[in-house]
Amino acid sequence: MKMNTHEINHNASLSACRHPGLDPGSRHLLTMRLDPRFRGNDELSGHSSVAWRLAVSAAITILLLVLTTYTASWAAVGCDLNDPDRDVARLFPESTGYKTVYTSILQKGGEPLLARVEARLGDKFHGLYETIDVPYTIYEIFAGKKKIGYIHGVNQKGQFGGIQVFVVLDLEGRIRGFYIQKMTSQYAGKLRDAKFGKQFIGLTLKDFELYDVPKGKASGSVDAIKNPAPGAEDDFKAALRATKKNLILMDEFVYSTQPATSRKNAP
User: Whole-prediction pTM value?
Assistant: First the structure.
């Protein structure tokens, strides 16, 4: 339920400002400005001064709590695996361990990087899931001491709520697994089904560069990905947008920073 901050602060201030020396049944309230009628009465003036200070303190405290709650509710939202130990073992069966790396567009390049990502995506970032300071969690996967790939997820606005889309990548940026961790939709079961995810295996950023996000039009290998539920067209397109965004971010955060020779020789 959306709270009316002004109404809450106003009512809280009034209730906190009831004069302690007055009959509670009278329901008289003090205002922030002392009533001149009480200035000649030392007892009442003293009570008024104390009540006034308490009222101001209470009002400020309540205001800060409301603003803190409001700000926190609109903070940048990251995307983590629900159970990393279990999920990494399931998505990378040959793995023996993983390392978690946290980053953001703000940290990696700020506004210039955000502009570049948006240009590559062909769409503007917007909303709670795509602020410049959104934290991204990259899982570096190991077999022994050897790095063998990555898992990375992004949040995406769907038709009825947020969608969490993870891609499992090899060292060259090729998709070897696709996983929708969360989706609010009556068609979530079909879009989260392994049969749908298998259509993404083997694709790369180069394939998704041909996907036109604003128009929702694909060509090449991405065009071959079939929507399992015609009624879920909006969420289907959202999943494709999220995958393209995911691959672009991984290219900016990881792959483009690696020497070309190490990527070429990756297993």
Answer: 0.71
